[in-house]
């Protein structure tokens, strides 16, 4: 193993971690300022989507809060106006984003973490501290579910570091692509891209092996009674 690839899986995962961030309706007008704050603190914004949730969608998103006293208020709040969903990436992204947001209770954030985003953009009302401006996933499994809630086709996996790209190419691409390019150079087909695509399809090492067609299976094998096991 090369020196550049000696990091543990845990360290690599923390480097490439992702989380979902939501700018809630009460902070929607401050989206630009919040996004700039996010970027200035070392996060990359990989995806962004503006949407207005229905009460049913909000209830599904926060299904982990079902049965709690604040659940109806939370659903009403999240479906009261447009929101912005962001996929963030950074080292230790989940915890780093939660630290930047500050405590869930706006009163606590303003008293003890005055520089946090919730202290700056959250609102205290007579109904409680439900209007805390921002949301962040609590842990990796929740981040995966919430990211796919807004971005169902997004691949959420480790981001390759620069020093690992060559290792990935040598291990996963070169064994098939190298011979294909060599054959392409020998054949010199009229449509090289189509030819190479067909070659890679025929020689895909991940293609599952197919069993014989059903008509080739002998009847006596299909109806064979196995030898009874001994008691």
UniProtKB/TrEMBL annotation:
It comes from the Eukaryota. GO terms for cellular component: cilium. It holds the Pfam family NDK. GO terms for biological process: cilium movement; negative regulation of oxidative stress-induced intrinsic apoptotic signaling pathway. Residues 16-157 form the Nucleoside diphosphate kinase-like domain. Belongs to the NDK family. PANTHER family: NUCLEOSIDE DIPHOSPHATE KINASE (PTHR46161), NUCLEOSIDE DIPHOSPHATE KINASE HOMOLOG 5 (PTHR46161:SF1). This is Nucleoside diphosphate kinase homolog 5-like. The lineage of its organism: Eukaryota, Metazoa, Ecdysozoa, Arthropoda, Hexapoda.
């Amino acid at each position: 193993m090369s020196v550049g690839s000696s990091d543990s899986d845990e360290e690599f995962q923390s480097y490439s971690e992702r989380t979902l961030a939501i700018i809630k309706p009460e902070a929607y007008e401050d989206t630009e300022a919040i996004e700039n704050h996010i970027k200035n603190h070392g996060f990359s914004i990989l995806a962004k989507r503006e949407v207005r949730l229905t009460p049913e969608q909000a209830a599904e998103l926060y299904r982990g809060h079902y049965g709690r006293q604040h659940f109806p208020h939370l659903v009403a709040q999240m479906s009261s106006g447009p929101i912005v969903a962001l996929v963030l990436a950074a080292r230790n992204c989940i915890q780093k984003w939660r630290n930047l947001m500050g405590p869930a209770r706006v009163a606590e954030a303003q008293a003890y973490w005055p520089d946090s985003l919730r202290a700056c953009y959250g609102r205290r009302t007579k109904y409680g501290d439900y209007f805390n401006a921002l949301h962040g996933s609590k842990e990796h499994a929740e981040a995966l579910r919430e990211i796919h809630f807004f971005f169902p086709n997004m691949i959420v996996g480790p981001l390759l570091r620069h020093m690992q790209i060559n290792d990935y190419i040598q291990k996963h691409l070169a064994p098939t692509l190298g011979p294909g390019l060599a054959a392409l150079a020998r054949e010199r087909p009229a449509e090289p891209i189509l030819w190479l695509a067909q070659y890679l399809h025929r020689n895909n090492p991940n293609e599952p092996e197919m069993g014989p067609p059903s008509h080739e299976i002998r009847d006596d094998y299909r109806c064979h009674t196995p030898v009874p096991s001994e008691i």
